[in-house]
Amino acid sequence: DAGVIQSPRHEVTEMGQEVTLRCKPISGHNSLFWYRQTMMRGLELLIYFNNNVPIDDSGMPEDRFSAKMPNASFSTLKIQPSEPRDSAVYFCASSYTGGSQPQHFGDGTRLSIL
Amino acid sequence: TQLLEQSPQFLSIQEGENLTVYCNSSSVFSSLQWYRQEPGEGPVLLVTVVTGGEVKKLKRLTFQFGDARKDSSLHITAAQPGDTGLYLCAGERSNYQLIWGAGTKLIIKP
Prior knowledge:
Chain A has 114 residues and is an all-beta fold. Chain A has strands at residues 5-7, 10-13, 19-24, 31-38, 42-50, 53-56, 65-71, 74-79, 88-95, 104-105, 109-113.
């Protein structure tokens, strides 16, 4: 079975540019999560969708970040304009809704903002 | 505020040795999950513990959930180089919210 698919795997761009990260969750999963991982702060939840609806976006750093889930099989995380401090590995994860459900992670997008 | 403290942050030992990783909190969790992450990949679930005092074994890995459901430990017996990775604990606070520890980076030297 296909796991969570993220693209691109690596992105290097100059500050000020728009960055779009993409995620295809596991078919049938109705919860989707976007995380950011850095050495300093570890794994941070950015936003949580349930049945394509954003439920918790309290982790989104600022207005430069936005996320959408137009349908059950696709989500995007956009940063505009990007800044060097946005450099991190961004993960998408999906799961079934409900207690104790494991989250299945993609392999991440390593983002470098120069 | 770090709600879930993991220790040690880094551990480098020889193949064949035993080790324990700890995950502690002042908060009660409905369940606790352990993940392992390898370089260039996302975390992968190892085990979920739900009941206070629960012990689960996965080959040479033993996971325990504290009686009060505030802490957990992971013990590895006779560590092997294949156990190398970043071990993350995550406590469940609600139907979706996981509180993540900072991780323990484990290196097993042949």
